[in-house]
Design brief:
Layout (H helix, E strand, L loop, with lengths): L16 H8 L1 E5 L3 H17 L4 E6 L7 H4 L3 E2 L7 H11 L3 H5 L6 E3 L2 E5 L14 E4 L11 E5 L3 E3 L1 H13 L4 E5 L5 H11 L3 E4 L5 H4 L6 E11 L11 E4 L7 E6 L4 E12 L2 H12 L6 H17 L4 H4 L5 E17 L2 H4 L3 E8 L3 H13 L6 H7 L9
Parallel strand pairs: 1-2, 1-10, 2-9, 5-12, 10-16
Antiparallel strand pairs: 3-8, 4-8, 5-7, 6-7, 11-14, 11-15, 12-13, 13-14, 15-16
Helix pairs in contact: 2-6, 2-13, 4-13
C-alpha cells in the first residue's frame, strides 16, 4: 500500500462493500426506504453474478406509510438540481431501472410530460433536460397565477404508494434475504447485531433516522405534505401531466399523477425541519391515524390546500368539501448526498457504509447512487490518517 511517511507508493486495492460481502457471504442492510431496497437487490444480484450467494440481514423499524419512500411523489426529472454529481446519477438512472423491471414492476413507471410555472420574468431551465423544453402560455394550463411556463416532453413518474408494499415483499423474498423488524438505538447496537450475524459490513440507508442511529447531524427531516385527490375528478390533461411551481422551494407547489395508484399528489414543502426525537414520535401517531396529527400538521395541510387552489384552480373540484386524503413525511435532507464509510475509530473491524441525504431525489438517483456507493473501497487506517476523513473523494 502507500507508505504515507516515505512517499513510496505500492499498489493497494481497498475492499468495497460488495467485495467484502462476497468474501464473507454476509452483509447487514438497515433501512426499508427505496435506497435500502436497492442495496439489498444489488447485493443479491452481485452474489448471483459471482455464483457466491450473499446472506443479507435486512433491518428496519417498519415498512408502512411512515417510511418516506412510501409517500414520495416519485417524479424523475434529472435536471432539477444544481449539483452536477446528482444530475449525473439522475441521468444514468432515467433510462432503465433494472430492479423494477427484473422484479416485474416496470408497469409502475410511466412516462410523463411536465410543465414548469413561474412568476419570474426570466426563466432558464438548467442543463441536463432529458427532452425538449418549449416556452408556453400559463393560461394554456389553467394557471393564471403565473407569468411564464415551460413545457418539457420527457420524464417519468413512479407510483410509489402502490409500488412500495409490493416491492418490499419481492426484495424481502429474494434468496438469502432475511427481513427483520427491529429498532436499532445506536451504532453500538448495530455493530453488535452485525457481529452476531457473522457479517463484516453493514450499510445504513436509514434516511432521516441516520441522524440518531449514526449521530450524523448533517441529516435532517424535511417535512413535506401531499394532498391525494381522485384522478377521476381531474380533467384531462391534468390527470397525466406534471405541474410544478418553480418560484421558491419553501413554497413548492406541484401536481404529480400516480396513475397506478389512481390519485394525483398535490404537494408542498413546508420548510420545517424536524430534528428532535420526541417530535418524530408525535408525527408518527398522526401518520397512522390522521385524527391524531399535530395541530401544526393540519394547519400546514390547509395552507397547502389554499395555495393549490390559488395557483392551480383546475384542481378545485377535486378538493371541494375536503374530499381528499393527505400524507406527510420527513424527507432525509442533507446539504450534499452522503456516501461514505464511518471511521474505523468508531466501528473497529466492522465496516459501516452510510448512504443517504437524498432528500426528495431518492427515486430520481437511487439506481446509480447505490451502484457508486457500494463500489467505494473502505479506506485503510493509513488512508484515514492521511486524508483526515473516513472516505477519500469519490468521483462518479
Amino acid at each position: 500500500m502507500y507508505d504515507l511517511t516515505s512517499g513510496d507508493i505500492e499498489a493497494f486495492e481497498p475492499e468495497t462493500f460488495v467485495e467484502t460481502a462476497l468474501r464473507t457471504g454476509r452483509a447487514v442492510v438497515v433501512g426499508h426506504g427505496i435506497t435500502g431496497h436497492q442495496v439489498v437487490y444489488d447485493l443479491v444480484a452481485a452474489g448471483r453474478r459471482a455464483a457466491k450467494p450473499i446472506r443479507v440481514l435486512w433491518i428496519a423499524d417498519r415498512h408502512d406509510q411512515r417510511v418516506a419512500s412510501f409517500g414520495a411523489c416519485g417524479w424523475h426529472m434529472p435536471f432539477l438540481t444544481g449539483d452536477p454529481r446528482v444530475a449525473a446519477w439522475a441521468q444514468r438512472s432515467l433510462r432503465g431501472w433494472h430492479m423494477l423491471s427484473e422484479l416485474g414492476f416496470g408497469d409502475y413507471v410511466t412516462r410523463a410530460e411536465s410543465v414548469f410555472l413561474t412568476r419570474e420574468r426570466h426563466r432558464r431551465l438548467p442543463a441536463g433536460c432529458p427532452g425538449n423544453a418549449i416556452a408556453a402560455d400559463p393560461l394554456d394550463f389553467s394557471a393564471p397565477f403565473y407569468s411564464r411556463a415551460t413545457f418539457v416532453d420527457d420524464g417519468s413518474i413512479i407510483s410509489t404508494c402502490a409500488l412500495m408494499p409490493r416491492l418490499h415483499d419481492a426484495v424481502g423474498g429474494l434468496p438469502g434475504v432475511t427481513p427483520l423488524v427491529r429498532h436499532l438505538r445506536d451504532l453500538d447496537e448495530l455493530l453488535g447485531v452485525t457481529a452476531e450475524f457473522g457479517a463484516e459490513v453493514a450499510c445504513v440507508a436509514a434516511g432521516d433516522r441516520a441522524q440518531f442511529l449514526l449521530d450524523d447531524k448533517r441529516i435532517e427531516g424535511d417535512l413535506g405534505v401531499l394532498l391525494l385527490v381522485d384522478a377521476a375528478k381531474v380533467p384531462a390533461p391534468f390527470d397525466r401531466i406534471v405541474l410544478r411551481d418553480e418560484d421558491r422551494d419553501h413554497e413548492l407547489t406541484y401536481s404529480i399523477p400516480h396513475r397506478a395508484c389512481g390519485h394525483i399528489c398535490l404537494g408542498g414543502a413546508s420548510g420545517r425541519l424536524v430534528t428532535e426525537p420526541e417530535v418524530y414520535a408525535e408525527l408518527e401517531d398522526g401518520i397512522t391515524d390522521p385524527a391524531r396529527a399535530p395541530r401544526y400538521i393540519t394547519e400546514t395541510v390547509e395552507e397547502i390546500r389554499d395555495r393549490v387552489l390559488e395557483r392551480l384552480p383546475v384542481f378545485g373540484a377535486a378538493l371541494d368539501d375536503g374530499d381528499y386524503r393527505f400524507w406527510y413525511g420527513l424527507r432525509p435532507a442533507a446539504e450534499r448526498a452522503v456516501a461514505e464509510w464511518l471511521p474505523r475509530s468508531n466501528t473497529g473491524h466492522i465496516g459501516v457504509l452510510h448512504l443517504g441525504g437524498l432528500g426528495g431525489s431518492g427515486f430520481t438517483v437511487v439506481p446509480a447512487f447505490v451502484e457508486d456507493g457500494l463500489s467505494i473501497g473502505r479506506p485503510t487506517p493509513d488512508m484515514e490518517a492521511h486524508f483526515g476523513r473516513p472516505t477519500p473523494v469519490h468521483s462518479s
